Amino acid sequence: MQCLRLSIRGKPSLRPSLLYAVTCLAAFSVHDPASHGLRAGGAPKSARIPAESREYDGLTLEPWRERIKSLDFRSEDAVQAIPGLTAIVADREAPWFNRRQAAMTLGRIGKPAASSLPVLRDCLSEPQPVEGPHPTTWVASALGLFGPVAKDATPDLLKIAADRSRPVIQRVAGIEALSQIGPAHRQAIPALRDLLTDEDPIVQTAAAEGIAYLGPAAQVCVPTLTRLLRAGSPRMRFKSAQALAKMGPAAEIAIPAVVDALVFDDSPEVRDEAGNILAAIGPASLDPLRQLAGDSDAEVRWRAVRALGLMGQLARPARATLDAALEDPNETVRAEALSAHWAVFASLDNILPLAIELLQSTDRQQRIRAARFLVDLGPRVRLVLPQLKTLQESPRPEVRRAAAQVIRELSDREIP
Q: For residue 400, which of 409, 411, 410, 391 has the smallest C-alpha distance?
């Protein structure tokens, strides 16, 4: 019988209990005629039972594959499966894809399967197998599924993520796991912050995405993200902006850099995200957005107006700005003002005529947008039904189609 190893970094471990060790050893039971009792090295190769024929808690791999497919991860059956799944993970001679399947299943079971964490961590130190990927990749993914429950694995994951000699796929797997552990371990978020300036752009991107996933819990990263927004590569400026947009009010100190990005950045995607950041920050952004909404550049104005709309009722103090935007000479600014005005004030005063105007735009996207706005109003659109019916007689076929589409969709909703 092959012994289930219970060592971490070469040191014996009884975590979480002696009962756990006994349970797992019993689960990983293989009748081997050439062996007598438990032996660390197992039987000679000629006497070993092939992995496909071994039993893990009473089942061979094929039944385990089928059992996993139908397993409800929150059920009592899942809890009962933990010893067998752990034994599969621990067997280095089992096919790597079966081990991975078992590890990921344990991660999805989550906290009830915490007893398997020492075995999973032990797999991280295995040598490169002859076939398949190194266990680090799938073990880190499994640890990430455990989330905060796997916080004790943080030191192992830190080493993987920071090790520049490792394949980048392993480093990214470590980063993703760290982001899912998050504030449960005090070293996880600072490590993600440090990786924002790694030499590998893929690692940088993964770190920024992990920080975005954590949102305000990772606010310690705001200064670094702000620097990258100003001076990073195009990709990192965008990823930094996305992460800052998830910080909410915690990103207030970044407002000057965000305003500069909205006005001056070469990338439209970065400028769009800059508006999202200002919206997420909330009331502290109102004054900068008022100023931006009066900029000479229409692209700056419509992004500022959109940001005010995204703030919802928090943007009510900017009513004068939004009212002025409804009459902006630029059609895109007016379209953004239409949506923003409705989102902030939930009032149709002064905006229905603009919706009818935009339905006649020469820009197809503006017509689509106006039509969607009117349809979403539901029964309120009765106020402009006469105008819509008039537009069905327009000399322009695209306007007739747009008006007909609105009336048809409203009719489908049984709105006369």
A: 391
In whole angstroms, give the CA distance from residue 157 to residue 51.
29
Per-residue model confidence (pLDDT) at position 78? 97
For residue 59, the cross-strand partners are 56
Interhelix angle 135-146/96-109, nearest 10 degrees = 10
Asked which of 4-8, 203-207, 259-263 is least confident by mean pLDDT, the reply is 4-8
pLDDT digits (tens, 9 = 90+) for 101-147: 999 999 999 999 999 999 999 999 999 888 889 999 999 999 999 99
Residue 282's pLDDT band, with cuts at 50, 70 and 90, is very high
Omega within 30 of 0 (cis) for the link into 16 = yes
98: phi then psi, degrees, rounded to nearest 5: -70, -40
- pLDDT, tens digit (0-9, with 9 covering 90-100), for 290-341: 999 999 999 999 999 999 999 999 999 999 999 999 999 999 999 999 999 9
Tell me how far apart the alpha carbons of residues 354 and 360 are, in angstroms, rounded to a whole number: 10
Angstrom CA distances, 410 to 219, 342, 366, 414, stand at 45, 19, 19, 6
Structure tokens at 285: 């952004």
Structure tokens that stand for 209 in this block? 């995405």
Sign of CA dihedral 346, 352, 355, 359: positive
CA distance 123 to 106: 14
Extract long-range pairs of 48-55: CB within 8 Å, 24+ residues apart: 48/93, 51/91, 51/93, 51/94, 51/95, 51/98, 52/95, 54/30, 54/91, 54/94, 55/29, 55/30, 55/31
For tokens 């996933």, the residue is: 213
Q: From residue 159, how far is each of 123, 179, 351 by CA, in Å? A: 14, 14, 57
The total of other beta-carbon atoms located within 10 Å of residue 411's CB is 10
If you count them, how many residues does the chain have? 416
Distance CA 274, CA 310 (A): 12
Spatial distance between the Cα atoms of 120 and 90, rounded to a whole number of angstroms: 8
What is the sign, positive or negative, of the torsion defined by CA atoms of 301, 305, 308, 310?
negative
Nearest C-alpha neighbor of 237 from the set 205, 202, 195: 205
Report the phi/psi class of residue 393: left, alpha or beta, with left for phi > 0 and alpha for psi in -120 to 50.
alpha
CA distance 244 to 256: 13
